Amino acid sequence: MPEPVIQKSELKKACKNCGAELKYKPGTTSIICEYCGHEDHINLDTDPIKELPLRVYLESQGSQANSEEISILHCKNCGANQHVEENYKSLHCVYCGTPLIREDAKTEQWILPGAVLPFQLTQQEAIIRFKKWVKGLWWAPNDLQKATLDPQSTKGLYLPYWTFDAQLYGQYSGQRGDYYYETQSYRDSNGRRQTRRVRKTRWIPVSGNVQGFVDDTLINASKQHTGKVPRGIALWDLKKLQPFESGFLAGFVTEKYTIPLKDGHLESQDEMREIAKTWARRDIGGDEQRVSHLNMQLEEETFKHILLPVYISAYRYKNKEYSFFVNGENGSISGKRPYSFWKIFLTILAGLFVFGLVYLFSK
Ligand SMILES: [Zn+2]
Ligand SMILES: [Zn+2]
User: Where are the bilayer-spanning segments (predicted)?
Assistant: First the structure.
């Protein structure tokens, strides 16, 4: 008889006292009831975070291993796949604000996340940061604040990433450049003979081997175009990763990867190649290096699917879509914002006026 399967992805927990859904409390290892304050602890996995063997997963039979079913809402407007843990009264796409219909949810397979970096910042803290940011914006229309500060439009989202580890072996050939100096003589503008030292580079052919372990190359697994997370805030302290527990997702939206493992792996190989080149340059030494040929092998490749936290607010202002992001771990903020034509116009006008006055007085 097959063993009963415990579905880890959707382990919903209800409050013992009042039956309401429990939500993860950022910065803790608890899920709490917003209505009566009842608190439950998330059972932390004491095993180290699991790395999965890559080859098995890239071959089709293996891709079902360590996978589970999860209910997914697909946004027809921007294509984002999202899993919503909470029973929101009205559901909107986290990226573009398009209304979603709960009945449209489909059950899909996903490779279970190996780790999650739990939210450290609460939604209120994210909104406070956003308020400050909006206030500090130059050239922003005055009524922007009203348009944007709707707490309903700010949602916590777990973003999908792939990480890859490998033992890297590289054989390179290239050239090593060493500086040397020559004394040259020349005539200066007065026709006198002078000497100067000129730097030259002597190139010698080199070849060699490099090897080492590459840990956790981080590859974005979300194919989002609308409201793509800006690079500036896409930095998380991966030391805070916890083994996956669905409790951390309670009350948040989780995006299912739209970039398949195979494509993520190809991108990670490009990154590994860059790492191999850096190692080769260091190995070559000298003052300058050229790597003309590099042969790379990756062995014992492993990967994991991880979830990283951001707060995202998709807002409409004068019929245009804007979005802003707050890193859910460290609070860094970035976003697209509208500019006020009149503020810029009047400032330029004032500038011209001052310039005109200065000009008149100087006459
Ligand atoms: Zn309760
Ligand atoms: Zn959307």
Answer: 341-361
